[in-house]
Amino acid sequence: MTTPMTTTPSPVLGVLPLGFPWATQDPFLFCAYHDDAYPKGNADMGPQDSLAGRDIGQDFSRKDGWSMYHGETVPGFPAHPHRGFETVTVVRKGLIDHSDSLGAKARFGQGDAQWVTAGQGIVHSEMFPLLDSERENPLELFQIWLNLPAKNKMVPPHFTMLWSADMPRLVTHDEAGRQTDVLTVAGQLEGADAPLPPPPDSWAAQPEADVAIWTIRMAPGARWTLPAAKGHGTRRTLYFFKGASVTIGGTAVQSSNAIELRGDVAAELVNGDVEGEFLLLQGKPIAEPVAQYGPFVMNTQAEIMQAMQDYRRTQFGGWPFGDSAPNHGRDPKRFAVHPDGREEVPA
């Protein structure tokens, strides 16, 4: 009698080239990777270099390796509204100045993350001050949009800071001593400390949602196994944004690709001959209709129309600052002031 052979299914479901923004899967809506080589800063915390040839207020050109985006003096995104989802901003290099219609403000970066539940409506600005006038001001960040389920679309907005020193990390070495570092913005990873709690109304706060946001850095030639997801039906995408090549469960993939992975099996990663970096987005789908118009994400077109009417009527509480693109001065100290006036600084 012959025993049938069993084969382990490949963890790789598909590979898609990275664009701008990066393609996402439910429960995620959007992922943008900004990697700007900003020059020295001027007296106004904008670039010393000339802005000639840029479409100021709408500059996504990456001319000379950087963009002004919607900024006119300081690069960034002046006051704009959101409703019906969450923004998670992970800043790997540089600083962001946040201000919002709740009256909150913050300067964060150098590995920090900010998590904003827009809920029923918030207006915020995200500016990139160039504080150093003697050296270049590199900025590197991810902005991720995480959907809210219908029952939480209209919750009160919420503002959370996740400081770099508080975020759980896992550092492992393979048999040859080659290192892999994993930073967990959200989601539990065996061997790392308990994850920081997400905002209370987030999809990530539901245990069955199995949401994970991790960054992974692998030394040349390093081996590390991404564990299987805990939740049934969990979707996961691994964004390979820096490096040369990686082999995942026996499948070779080049850099600058998004790799859709099975959630129910572990995936061994074998990095190529240069350091590799990855972003993992994982979660159980919300599996509800999505209606989107720009910064509003609801379940129906009628709700989108209502969002637009509400914003025109109320401005989601109004803008408490005198400038649509406020910055927080030249002191590089990171801080947060919450809507109730509570002040917070990283350890």
TrEMBL record:
Coiled coil feature spans: none
Biased composition (Basic and acidic residues): 328-347
Chain ranges of the Pirin N-terminal domain: 70-146
Domain spans labelled Pirin C-terminal: 214-317
UniProt xrefs under Gene3D superfamilies: Jelly Rolls
Family: Belongs to the pirin family.
Name of protein: Pirin family protein
